[in-house]
Amino acid sequence: MSSEPIVRVGLVLGFAVLIPSVFVLLAGHNPWSVLTTLLLYALGPQGWSEVLLHAIPLTLIGLGVAFALRAGLFNIGSDGQLIAGALLSVVFAPYFSGWGVTGLLIFLVLGFVGGAALGAFVGYLRAWFGTSEIIVTIMLNYVALQMVSYLIRGPMQESSRFWPRSYAIPEDCVLPIIVPGTRLHAGLFVALLMAMLCAVAQKRTVLGFQSSVLGANPGAAAYAGFPVKTLTLVVMAISGGLAGLAGAVEVAGIYQRIEENMAEGFGLAGIAVALIARLEASGIPLAACLFGIFFAGAGALQREVGLPFPLVWVIEAAMIFAAGALHWALAGRKVTA
Amino acid sequence: MIDLLLISGLLAASIRLGMAIGLAAIGEAASEQSGIFNIGIEGIMLVGAFVAAWGSVHTGSPWLGVLLAMLIGLALAGFHALVVLVVGIDQFVSGIGMVIFGLGFSSFAARLTIGARPTAVPGLAALDLGVLSHIPIIGPILFAQSPLAYFAIALAVATGWVLKRTALGLEIRACGANAAVAEAMAIPVKRRQTACILFGGVTAGLGGAYLSVVQVNAFVEGMVAGRGFLAVACVMLGRRRPLAGFVAGLGFGLAEATQIRLQTLYPDLPYQFLVMLPYIAAITALVVGHASRRARPA
ipTM score here? Predict the structure, then answer.
């Protein structure tokens, strides 16, 4: 291994490009033409709104993951928290019929509350029982998936009882489309607002400061007299709440009901988004757009070229490793300089 | 008598259903004793399950499939070791990367080769010791499991013995307890840790192979369904002892086997609540396990 930073950066970037390319080659396609197809679609007249559409939940989930990870907590349960948020808001949605914008706001707040409740539960177990938040959040994902599967075939199923999906939410709770002719909805503003709030929370609030210290050095946080247990609970609640909000936004903006496999795989993608943005709230919307390109583009590749959609996961993994390794590649500069 | 038969069937099934988790837990226990977590074993198991199925379909020999799965597990764990020990990426970040990679690799390759829908895979036959395997009640439990199951039990015992009773095991545990001190004692820390991570990769690959060529005889996308994470939970429950982690894995097999039987016994109960049981059991066990550890004097 050379210690030259340029060689290292080259290695890392080469790796990030090489791994997905190998998979494309093995599938019998030309990586270059696949990449241009992907980009032409994603940045073209049809694709750009789909890219932003995917970036909305990815931003919210990524913000939540980053918020927890700054405090040293791995929230891998965004999928479950997203479901919890969507469920809670859809359970109460019928009551908001005729409430107008107030109904929509309460709908979104309930989404946050649902995810936050599940996140707080994990934080509670972590802080008071020392239970690994990694394992608990993952286990709760499977529990939440089964719960949704039951509810949309049981008590929450639409009245015709034909499809396994919930009843529709009232029109008051639907997020308006902001660009006519596309699916792009006002959830975009919700995501950007949350990114701003998180950036402020990170830099300017006691909570942001204390959680950064907790993440960097738990011993120091305890020694400084921070309420570490409460902090853990609150951070996990906010992290889960953002994922829950993503669930409510997905329902209000796209599905208008709960469907099986909605937002599938967004939880893991949100982790990638948070890591690539280096946990900076201001960078997360951009990282989310990058993954929006992959998600929207991979859908197009599957339709047009016949490349299986799971290629997205391979790209995602390569980017996680590359983002982590850039740190190593650039750290070499300090040593040599 | 009928009760006994039921229990016998249940126990035989729990060994069958828990083996994949138990196998992965053996290697993960060794890896964690050396100080390195690998939550990526979920991804390695997925790739192992796919590769074993693919190899088995293409060569007609499930044993070759199992071997391939072990090799791919070795390679992926080698990557985890490189990234964590040399490049210095956080072990949990690398683990999550591996989970996502495994998901992508297995699903992408499966759709292009053996098809997205389940294909029948030539499986490993269960052991047939003639009379012994047909002894009522204990026969199916003790003498009619897959050959891999007996291998796994031996492996769990052997791994535990090496870690606890040999000089090598002492060195490995020293790396996990305090890497700086171990280094000062001239123990090649990174080499020991790499060996343990690689071992963990092999058993995870084996666990995945067990799923596709023994338990299900097919590859289904996402078929590992959290068993890799459950294996990590088992290692926590077994306090990083390989045999205890392995037994905890069989415990989840029991939860799974019970859950499936309850589905047939109570068809009116929504099956989703029963499918949840093993996952809820994992959370409960971790909480209770911690509480009992705290109650004990240090």
Answer: 0.91
